[in-house]
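Final report, Chapter 2: Outcomes

The project's central promise was a pipeline that accepts a single protein chain and returns its three-dimensional structure in a standardized token representation, suitable for archiving and comparison. That pipeline is now operational. To close this chapter, we reproduce one record exactly as it appears in the project archive, with the input sequence first and the structure output second.
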Amino acid sequence: MFNKVILVGHLARDIELKYTQSSLAIAKTAIATSRKFKTAAGEQKDEVMFIDITFFGRSAEVANQYLRKGSKILVEGRLVLDQWDDATTGQKRSKHQVTVDTMQMLDSKGDNPSGQNAQGANSYGQNYNQAPAQQPQQGYGEPREQYAQPQQQQEPKIPVIDIDEDEIPF
């Protein structure tokens, strides 16, 4: 079986960080995602979803240190059903949430709410879609125009998600 969720959005609230008795960090927040679509009548609609997310361990501490309400983030994780008994009504309650396995902060260096570079020198400003280095080819004895031969580049393992800034509710 396969249970994987990939979400891109903005944090809907600041992170709540707590520690268990065994010193495991647990951070909870929510991510807001949106999509635009047309109804059958041709009317433009926006659908906004707020999904609770939970970080564990070191990623919980990093998220708490560098992310704030409104921070743009990509998370990968698994969908979990949380069930409990409501203390006031005594009824069983449940909700789905995402337990985060990996995250990537998507704010640019200048947009980071904390004003710090959250991922070190290797991510902000790094362009994964740079043109590959060009190598000239030579013809058979005659001077010819030089042609560019693109080199193969290893792409990052992050999925490409085509999302427009206008589709984000913040």
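Archive annotation: Residues 112-150 have pLDDT under 50 and may be disordered.
This record, like all others produced under the grant, will remain available to the consortium after the project formally closes.
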